[in-house]
Each structure stands twice: as structure tokens, then as C-alpha cells.
Amino acid sequence: MRWRIVALASVGVNVMLTLVLLRSFGPGKAPASASHRLASAQAVITKTNVVFRREPFSWQEVESPDYRTYIANLREIGCPDQTIRDIIIADVNSMFARRRATELVTPEQQWWRSVPDSNVVMQAMAQAKKLEEARRTLLTQLLGTNWESGDLVNLPRPTQPGIDLDGPILGTLSPETKRAVEEITVESEQRMRAYLQQQGQHGGTADPAELAKLRQQTRNELAGVLSPGQLEEFLLRYSEDAVNLRGEFGQLRYFNPTPDEFRAVFRAVDPIDQQLQALSPIDPNSVAQRDGLEAEREAAIKNALGPSRYEEYQMLQDPLYRDAVASAIAAGTPGAAKTIYAINLAAQSTRQDISSDPSLTDSQKAIEQKQLDVDQLTANAIATGQQTPPPPPAPTPAPPQRTYVIHPGDSLAVISMIYGVPPGAIRQANPTVNFFRLTPGDVITIPPMGLPPIGAP
Questions:
Q1: Global pTM exceeds 0.70
Q2: Rounded-to-integer distance, Cα 140 and Cα 118, Å
């Protein structure tokens, strides 16, 4: 029981001491030193129990659609000025590259044209210049007038020539897809070049079948990164079959297929052309197979173009019809081409008849040919609604040919004086006559030139 009495006495003493201290300092007060220590202790306790940790950095916190804000954010995180310049230039260049790829209409995008449209070329150049000026102006506004002197992003670097992936289809490809397509095309060119060099080193010629395999490999690789529509757009612009088809239409000069016509013909003949390219030029079996494929190809073109356009396509194979179209266009009446063609065909046939007519002398044939030229021009002028050419001047009739029978005592000098013709002209008109041995009865020709004869009024 004694420990309880001692404990109660100790508690009572402590309570009394506490009350005395509270009264001495006033209500709600504590010694400054104690308060300070308490705060220090709490601070120490707080510091030992709380760990400050930096949140993970995210680039989204720095990026901004506004370039000025973007630059300010880069500076705030301590990014060096040169790095800021490189980042902004690269970003602006990327933005304008996308604009060029999607906004410009370049001649390469018009894959159906054999000859680039000069208006498209000029417009593309003007638009490209406008975009370049806008790019430089923006960079000057963002980085100052001396931005180009510190441009490390655009310094010339060794690179492989690429291809233009622009337009509404190829221009919208992702950067990753564009990079993959460029790598495929570069590797394709390297494979083709390596094969050709290898054949040349061994004194051989390129095997068409092997070249066809290499081209097909490239197509397969492109099909792995492009959709069917994107692949067709690429092939229409850059495949060998499309290049050859443009050349084929270009030789016709005036066919000018529409985009739909070119696409339809390409789709029809592309698989056939691939088979033709794989054939051997010397194998007899390949020759027979080639003839069959050529006929199949012609039928495919006819079906793709339709009757009317295929007829035009066939007629333009004839140079004479192309000349007729050129004449009709020059006269401003393109619809008269077939009429002019019929006139020219008839004139060609008549010209051949004149040349092969044995009853006509050379001079008569020349006269007939000249008259045919006039008739042809007149008919063409009527067909195009033009004025008919004036008739050619009537040819001056040749003076009648004169002859002279040699009399005893005649000489070249005497004959020259009689007819007023120089001796040299008489010699020229009679190349087979020896005037030093004239014999009475010989007949010579007197040329129609010279002075009036002796005795003439």
C-alpha cells in the first residue's frame, strides 16, 4: 500500500508545480525558448520524416502550340540557346515540309501527263517560293535576324537522293512510312545497280527475267508499308511500267489521256507488261508467248479506253494522221482532223500513181506533182474554213528550140554572128559536137539566148 501513497504524493507535487508555472507566465503563454525549441524539434522531426522527390519530367510540359511560349518554356528549363535554335528550326522546317507535301501540286503528281503542264510548273514554283518566304519570315520573328548563321540543322550533309512523296495521297503519309518508303527505294536502286555492274564485269547482259524479279521484290516490300491505294499511287508515279506507258502515249502527241483513262489503262496492262518483261528475247517459246501477250495487251487497252477513244488511239499511230491533227489545231478547227486526214491519204495515193506512171516524162511528173500540192492545199483550206491559196503563176513557156544545118565554109564564129549567140553558149548546147571539124550537113542546136540575130530589125 505504501507505493500507492508515494505515487499519489508525487502526482500531486507535479500538478502543483505546473499550476505555479502557468500563473507566473500568464494564460496561453510559454517561454520563448521553449517555443523555439518546440518549433525546432518539430522542424527536425518534419525534416527527418518527409522526403522531397522531383516529379518525372514530361516533354508535354514544355511543348506548346505557340512558338513563343515553347521557346520560353525551353529557356525556363535551362535549354542552351543553340539547342533551342536547332529545335525550333527543325520543328518549323518539318511543318513547312508537310505543307509543301500537301499543298503544292507538282508535275510529278500529274502522272497521266507525258509532258509536264507548264502552268502547273509555274504555279508550283510560285507556291514553293511563297512557302519558303513564309518559313524564313517565321524563323526571323522567332529567333532574330541572325538565325541562319547558327543553323546547324540545315547544314549540308551527305545523303541519298530521295523521291517526292507529296500530293493528297503520298503527301499525307506519316514520317515513319515516308522514311520506310525512301529506304526501300534506295535499297532497290542499289540492288539493281549491283546486279547490272556484276553482269558488266563478267561481260554478260542483263537477264530480263532477273530484272523483273528485282522490280517485283521492290513492289512486295512497298506493299508491306503502303495501303493498296497508296501503292497504286506510288506505282503510277514511279514504276517502270507507268514511265513506259507515259512514253507510249507521248509518242502519239495528241492523245492526252485523262487521269481516269491513264489509270484504267495502267491497271489493265500492268500485269501483262510484267509478264512481257520477264520473257527472254531469244527463246523461240518466249517469242510465241510474247505475240500472244501483245495481242492480249492491245485488247486490254481497247477495253479500258472504249470504242471512240480507242479509235483515236489507233489513228494517232499513223504519222499522217498526227500531221492532220496538227494542221487542224493550227487552223483552230480541231474537228476537221479526220477530213484533212482523208484528203492527205488521197493525195498520197495520187502522188504514188504519178511517180509510177511510165507514160509521163520527168518534167511532166514534176508539173503534176506541183499541181497536186496546190489541189491538196486548196482542199485542206476548204476543210478548215480558211482562204484558198492563190493559184500559182503560169509557167513561162520555153522558147522553141532552133536547129541549124552546117553549110560549106561555116564555122562557130560565123554561126555565132548569124544568131547573136555567144560561142560558149553554142558549145554548151552541143556538148557532143566538135566545132573544129564541122561537116556540111551536120545539125546543131541554137540555144534561145543572146543578142538579136544579124539582120533583125
A1: no
A2: 33
